[in-house]
Write a structure and sequence with these properties.
Elements lengths: L1 E6 L12 H4 L5 E5 L10 H18 L5 E5 L3 H4 L8 H14 L6 E3 L10 H4 L2 H21 L1 H6 E5 L6 H11 L8 E4 L17 H15 L6 E6 L5 H19 L6 E8 L1 H8 L6 E5 L2 E5 L22 H4 L5 H9 L3 H17 L15 H22 L2 H7 L5 H16 L12 H9 L3 H23 L4 H20 L12
Parallel strand pairs: 1-2, 1-8, 2-3, 3-4, 4-5, 5-6, 6-7, 7-8
Antiparallel strand pairs: 9-10
Helix pairs in contact: 2-4, 4-6, 6-8, 9-10, 9-20, 10-15, 10-16, 10-19, 11-15, 17-19
């Protein structure tokens, strides 16, 4: 599983404090939204300007070999910046970019119109939603037909969670023969739905199996080296756990086909950099030392003592794991003010907002707090490694394959035992020097919401796994299972959340 970082623009930082080289040390993927290309007139001029900005991005950071992802910018429609009357022009503008400037990017997501926060009439008209998305995808398919290179770059975004959406997007998939034109898939509609719904299982489990089945049909007649699946707007530990487990299971399914296709799962989030700035005065997280991972109560600990202007090399050892050479001096100066001076500055900002009595609409300026973007992303990349290591340490994918029973009580007991193991709840808290693996797992899996969600995810994944093993030819059964699972997720999500205020994932 690979993380793709969401950038606010093709120029996310100032020249004076550019954090991009540091970010690209930890993940090559950068997701940039086409929204800035949709000017007030939704004209070609705005798209041309966006292209020039992307050219500058490539020129400035090309030596770091970034993978450039383009978001369709449809979020501008969702948030109500544009209404349903603008849909034709948005489609035209998006495809102008897709066809003319496809050398700008490595991957691009389909432009979809699931709903509009300011247009309730559109949201309740499933025919209008289907029509708008048919028009967009139809133009994409025609563009791909004329340019085979786009097939490798284009991601078909599957909406599924809102009532009627799964059926609409399945119908679009069939009617437009998406399988003949698209190799890459993405799962959408998940931004914001987990804010207060953390103790429930991951919403994307069922539709992931649906997409896998579609892919298996493709490779039966074609040679496709990779099964690329992207999860839009995911950041919770429990969801990333599910993605990694699915990736390991899907690798096993694919290996049984006799083909050489491998799963390449990716996800994106803007949460990590926002969290870094928001929690800058006492930012905690995970750090990878030479001997393994550790949990740090405050990342200021990696700024070792020494002369700020002329530090010795050993004072910079851990900072260099996170930052590029050009910004380490600034990073040390900002960290040297921690935590008291930064906390005092934050308190002054808050007091100023209170005195203005403007409903706290004005946010404190970030300034040099951008130095916390790389450390926050580094920490979450460490978490992803820990999650993978945990799944492999306990042979979870193999255990699921070997568990041959359809007895849900049996798999539930197995899942109960698994979360007890990873939380180390059945033994005294391990000393950090005695067993680093146990210690870091105890630190990561320390929330009831995370553990309860993982438990349910294992059970639900197993239900779909049994379908894959026993009933793979029964597509109607799969569709029914997915719709039932969607209802189950929404029902569970409506219950009182079990998440507690100590959970550090958001």
């Amino acid at each position: 599983m690979e993380f793709v970082n969401v950038l606010k623009s093709p120029k996310p930082y100032t020249n004076a404090l550019d954090m991009m080289p540091s970010l690209l040390k930890h993940n090559k993927g950068s997701l940039i939204s086409l929204k800035d290309g949709y000017d007030s007139d939704i004209s070609a001029k705005g798209i041309d300007s966006f292209h020039k900005a992307m050219c500058r991005f490539s020129q400035e950071y090309g030596k770091y070999d970034p993978t450039k992802w383009i978001d369709s910018g449809g979020y501008s429609f969702i948030k109500g910046k544009f209404g349903s009357k603008h849909i034709p022009k948005l489609i035209e503008s998006y495809h102008y970019y897709l066809k003319k400037y496809n050398e700008d990017f490595d991957f691009i997501f389909s432009l979809d119109f699931p709903f509009n926060e300011k247009d309730k009439s559109f949201n309740t008209d499933l025919k209008a939603i289907r029509s708008a998305n048919f028009s967009s995808l139809d133009m994409s398919v025609k563009a791909i037909y004329k340019n085979e290179e786009l097939r490798k770059k284009f991601y078909f975004v599957h909406q599924f969670l809102k009532d009627g959406f799964y059926e609409i997007w399945r119908d679009l998939y069939r009617q437009l023969n998406i399988a003949d034109h698209v190799s890459n898939y993405a799962i959408g509609g998940m931004v914001g739905i987990r804010a207060n719904k953390r103790a429930v299982p991951s919403p994307f489990i069922g539709v992931s199996y649906r997409i896998l089945l579609d892919f298996l049909k493709i490779i039966s007649s074609k040679s496709v080296a990779e099964f690329r699946l992207h999860f839009l707007g995911v950041y919770l530990v429990q969801d990333r756990f599910s993605i990694i487990l699915l990736e390991r299971l899907f690798a096993k399914y694919l290996s049984q086909t006799g083909k050489e296709a491998k799963p390449v799962f990716t996800y994106d989030s803007s949460t990590y950099t926002r969290r870094g700035k928001r929690g800058h005065y006492s930012l905690s997280g995970f750090f990878e030392y030479d001997d393994g991972f550790r949990y740090l109560q405050n990342f200021d600990d990696i700024n070792l003592a020494g002369n700020l202007e002329r530090p010795e090399e050993h004072h910079l050892k851990y900072l260099k794991k996170v930052y590029s050479e050009g910004v380490i001096g600034t990073v040390r100066e900002v960290m040297d003010k921690s935590p008291g001076k930064r906390l005092k500055k934050l308190q002054k900002d808050i007091q100023s907002m209170i005195e203005k009595d403007d409903g706290l609409k004005k946010k404190p300026g970030t300034g040099s707090l951008a130095i916390y973007d790389p450390i926050s992303i580094f920490s979450d990349c460490c978490i992803d490694k820990i999650l993978l290591r945990t799944i492999e340490r306990y042979n979870l994918a193999d255990e699921i394959f070997d568990f041959s029973s359809n007895d849900i009580d049996g798999i539930t007991k197995f899942a109960n035992g698994f979360i007890l193991n990873i939380s180390h709840a059945g033994s005294p808290y391990p000393e950090i020097d005695a067993n680093l693996e146990d210690s870091v797992e105890a630190s990561l899996f320390n929330s009831a919401a995370i553990l309860w969600s993982i438990r349910q995810c294992i059970v639900k994944i197993y239900e779909f796994h049994r379908w894959m093993i026993d009933k793979r030819d029964d597509e109607k059964m799969l569709d029914k299972m997915i719709l039932e699972y969607n209802s189950f997720f929404k029902k569970e999500a409506d219950k009182k959340s079990m998440s507690d205020s100590s959970e550090e994932i958001d």
